[in-house]
Every structure is written in structure tokens, then in C-alpha cells.
Amino acid sequence: MADDPVAAQIGPYQVELEEGRMYAWCACGLSERQPFCDGKHKGTGLEPTRFKADSSGTFNICGCKDTDEAPFCDGSHNML
Ligand code: FES
After folding, report:
1. Residue 1, domain member (yes or no)
2. Do the Cβ atoms of 71 and 53 come closer than 8 Å?
């Protein structure tokens, strides 16, 4: 069974994404390269969410790891 994710930050990270580029969102909360995966999920049973940016711009990427719209912030941090 997978570990529960830990909140890396109670709020989103504002990051620049580039259209068409692939990213790996850290789902476990342990990465030191938030909000992206650095491989520290190994052994947790959790895996990063890989996604391709649909457009270029600044986006709110989930930091609390409780979003239902990964990798994007859905406001779930307000309930923690
Ligand atoms: S380090 Fe968190 S999912 Fe990879």
C-alpha cells in the first residue's frame, strides 16, 4: 500500500510551464525540487503525475499534494 503524500507547502507553487513540454509533478511531497519530482518517492509506493503543458504561461501547481486536479491547485490547501 502506498504511503500518504505529505504537504510540501500549504499552497500552490507558481511556475512557468512551456507548451508541449513534459513535466513530472511530485505527488509524494518529498522532492527537493518542488513542485516537480526528483526521485525521492522511491519506496513510498507513490509515483509522479506526468503531464504535458497545453500552453505556455504561469500556473498554480499544487504544493499540498491534496488536489483532485493534479498537477494543478484546486484550493484543497484551504481545507488543511
Ligand atoms: S519525488 Fe515526489 S513523486 Fe517523485
Report:
1. yes
2. no
The verdict on the CB of residue 49 being under 6 Å from ligand 1 is: no
Residue whose CA lies nearest to ligand 1 atom number 4: 37
Residue 79, in any domain of the structure: no
Question: What average pLDDT is seen over the chain?
Answer: 97
The pTM score is 0.95
d(CA 19, CA 56): 5
DSSP state of 9: -
Q: Is residue 20 in a domain? A: yes
Q: Which domain holds residue 21?
A: 1-65
- Within-domain flag for 54: yes
